[in-house]
Design a protein that fits this description.
4-stranded antiparallel beta sheet; about 120 residues; mainly beta; single chain; about 50% strand; 11 strands
Length: about 120
């Protein structure tokens, strides 16, 4: 059974930091690019950033560039999103997304974790 389980969300003050984790099971993690998306209330889901299957390539949305970092540990089957200098506009549900780099149709979503940035 495929699972992507996010954790690490919560309430943080502006300027603070959080690290989200996404633990994967049920598929060949090392062959999947991993992304983080977010969706704020009333807004469309947007891409935060992506890391390649090997971790050698990352790319980020302009809105979070320089503040957020995506990393992965293939041995632990986990992808991370380190979020620094958080702003109220970063408040959203954050989702983990896996996309196969081998099989075009194979992709999975996590259930999401809430991040709230507020004083």
């Amino acid at each position: 059974q495929v699972q992507l389980v996010e954790s690490g969300g919560g309430l943080v003050q502006p300027g603070g930091s959080l690290r989200l984790s996404c633990a994967a099971s049920g598929f060949t993690f090392r062959r999947y690019a991993m992304s983080w998306y977010r969706q704020a209330p009333g807004e469309e889901r947007e891409l935060v950033g992506t890391i390649s299957s090997t971790g050698g390539t990352t790319n980020y949305a302009d809105s979070i560039k320089g503040r957020f970092t995506i990393s992965r540990d293939n041995a632990k089957r986990t992808v991370y999103l380190q979020m620094n200098s958080l702003k109220p506009e970063d408040t959203a549900v954050y989702y983990c997304y896996a996309r196969s780099e081998v099989i075009a149709w194979s992709s999975y979503w996590g259930q999401g974790t809430q991040v709230t940035v507020s004083s």
